[in-house]
Structure formats: structure tokens, C-alpha cells
Amino acid sequence: MKLFHYIIQGRVWRSIFRTGLPETNYRRSLVILNNFFLHIHPAKVKKSTLKFTTTFYLGGIAFGLYLILLVTGIYLMLYYRPSVPLAYRDMKDLEFVVSNGKLLRNLHRWSAHAMVFIVFLHMLRVFFTRAFHPPKEFNWVIGVFLIIFTLLLSYTGYLLPWDQLAYWGVSVGTNMIKATPIMGEKIRFLLLGGNFVSENALLRFYVLHCVVIPLFLTLLIGVHFWRIRKDGGLQGDLEHYAEYEPDIILGKNIRVEQRESPNQSLVGTGNDENK
Ligand code: HEM
After folding, report:
1. Per the domain annotation, does 41 fall within a domain?
2. pLDDT per residue over 122-150, tens digit each?
3. Ligand 1 mean position to 11 CA, how many Å?
4. Is 76 in the pocket of ligand 1 (CB under 6 A)?
């Protein structure tokens, strides 16, 4: 215990962790605000927003799956080479030669499928709890880009095993793009690096899948989280919400009171009116 106190009172420790032990509410807030990883959270969070049934933790689960995809994806890159003679062989080696290779590949595959599904469910949750209303409409727009990039990530990964399913799946998909008026053929040419699915397409999809799309997605997820914080937390926060769009709160039979003192609550029940 003495050693512990000696360390946390030492100069090195205090130069990194400046707030001391989180023994009081004030200190706890400082710990959150001063920590690079934690400061994405508001210093205070309403209990109601932490309830499972408020969000079903779908956004958090989507983020968790994305982290699994990043870690397993980097691992897979150590065994996979994006060229026509090697890609399919590398996938087979992964399944039958590399220790735990099958587990690694399946973890990546299933997390990818699950992420698409969970992000879609998360979007439904946001929609049905009307959490896209002001001030959150910008975060909804970011969310739309997030689901597009999630689908693109999934689609570009589809070609990489270079098996029959991948080849024909991407042939069909890019032919559908070709049907887009005016720009269709040009977009297909750009995506494939030619007029048919070949080595160029494999390399392009590889770069998009492993570098370009994850970069955009990571950046957008950062903005998405930052916006949740700046919009006053999750939908459960009716008080904050009422300041922006009282009508929505009124619609739920909750009346917005004129705030007389800073400590007074903004939200009352509609029934108060008759008193
Ligand atoms: C990569 C995909 C995504 C990730 C990792 C993600 C993550 C999150 C997390 C962790 C939350 C807070 C907790 C929760 O609501 O579960 C959240 C909230 C939110 N998300 Fe997403 N999200 C994603 C996609 C989307 C999509 C596709 C939309 C809509 C088109 C969307 C719109 C929103 C909105 C509006 C909120 C605030 C909800 C509220 O205030 O109650 N997100 N997101």
C-alpha cells in the first residue's frame, strides 16, 4: 500500500495522471475530462440512458464488432497476398495450414456479417425512438454515411478470396453499377481498373477494403461519437432535448416549463396544467 501511494504521489505518475484518485464527484469528472480515451463521454451521464432498453447497446456492439474486424483484418493481412495466382491459395492455406487460421478467417467473416445486421438494427432503434430529430439530425446524416461505408467495406471484402462466389458476386454487382445512367460505365471502369473483373480489380478492392474505407469509417465513427456528446447525450435526455424541440416532448404529454432558476427542471408532466 505504501509503495502504491509512493508511486501515485511521485512526479512521473502525476505528470501523466493529473487529477489524483477519483474519490469525489468533482475528481471523477476531472478524470473523464482529462483522459484522452474517456473524454468522448460527457462528464455526467443520465442513468436512464444507460438502461439496456434505451439503446439495446446496439451502437456499442457495432463499434465492438468494428474493433474485432480491425484486429482480425490486420492479422489476416499477414497471410494474404492480393494477386490472382496467390489470393485463393492463401485463403486455402489459412484454412488448412496456418494454426487457428480458420478461426481467424471466420471471426472476420462473421463479425462483418454481424456488423451489417447490427448497424441496421441500430438505425431502426434510432428511427423508432425519434432520436434523429433536432439537434441530432446531423448525426443521423453521419449515420447514413456510416451504413453506406459499412456496406462498402463488406462488399469490397467479398472479392478478396478470389473464389467463384467472389468473382461472380462482384461481376454482378459492378454490372448493376454499369446500369446507372450517364456515370455508370465510368464508375465501373474506375472501380475495376478495366472493363472486367481482373487482377487490377483485385488490387483496387484490396486497397479500398484495407486502407481507404477503414480510414473514412474510423474518422466518421469519431465524429459520430463526438456529436452524441455535443448533442447532449442520448435520446433518454429529455431535459436537454426539450430546449431544442419542445413540440416533440409535448407530443409525449410532457410539458416544458419556463426555467426560472438554473437548478429548476425543464420538464414537467402535461397533467400539471390543470392544477
Ligand atoms: C459503424 C456504424 C455505427 C456505429 C459504430 C454507431 C455507434 C453509435 C453509438 C455507440 C451510439 C450511442 C449508443 C447507442 O445508441 O447505441 C450511437 C448513437 C446514435 N447513432 Fe449510431 N452508430 C453507427 C451507425 C449509425 C447509423 C447507420 C445511424 C443512422 C442512420 C446512426 C445514428 C445515430 C444517432 C442519431 C445516434 C444518437 C441516438 C440518441 O441520441 O439516442 N448511427 N451510435
Report:
1. no
2. 999 999 988 898 889 999 999 999 999 99
3. 40
4. no
Mean pLDDT of the region 26-41 = 87
Does the beta carbon of 197 lie inside 6 Å of ligand 1?
A: no
Instruction: Name the residue range of residue 207's domain.
Output: 49-236
Residue 178 shares a structural domain with residue 90: yes
CA–CA distance, 192 with 185 (Å, rounded to integer): 11
Regarding the beta carbon of 143 and ligand 1, being less than 6 Å apart is answered yes
Radius of gyration, alpha carbons of the chain = 25
Q: What is the pLDDT of residues 69-99, one digit of tens each?
A: 999 999 999 999 999 999 999 999 999 999 9
For a mutational test of ligand 1's pocket, the pick from 122, 145, 244, i.e. the residue with the most ligand atoms closer than 8 A to its C-beta, is: 122
| Atom number, ligand 1, closest to the C-alpha of residue 57 | 16
Q: What is the mean pLDDT of the chain?
A: 86
Asked if residue 37 is part of any domain, the answer here is no
138 and 176 in a common domain: yes
Same domain, 190 and 251: no
Residue 269: φ, ψ to 5°: -90, 150
Q: Does the CB atom of residue 136 touch ligand 1 within 6 A?
A: yes
Of the candidates 221, 187, 220, 181, which has an alpha carbon nearest to the alpha carbon of residue 204? 187
Integer Cα distance of 167 and 177 in angstroms:
16
Nearest to residue 68, comparing CAs of 111, 106, 99?
111
Ligand 1 binding pocket includes 233 (Cβ within 6 Å): no
Alpha carbon of 274 to ligand 1 centroid (Å): 38
pLDDT tens column, 202-247: 999 999 999 999 999 999 999 999 999 888 888 764 555 555 555 5
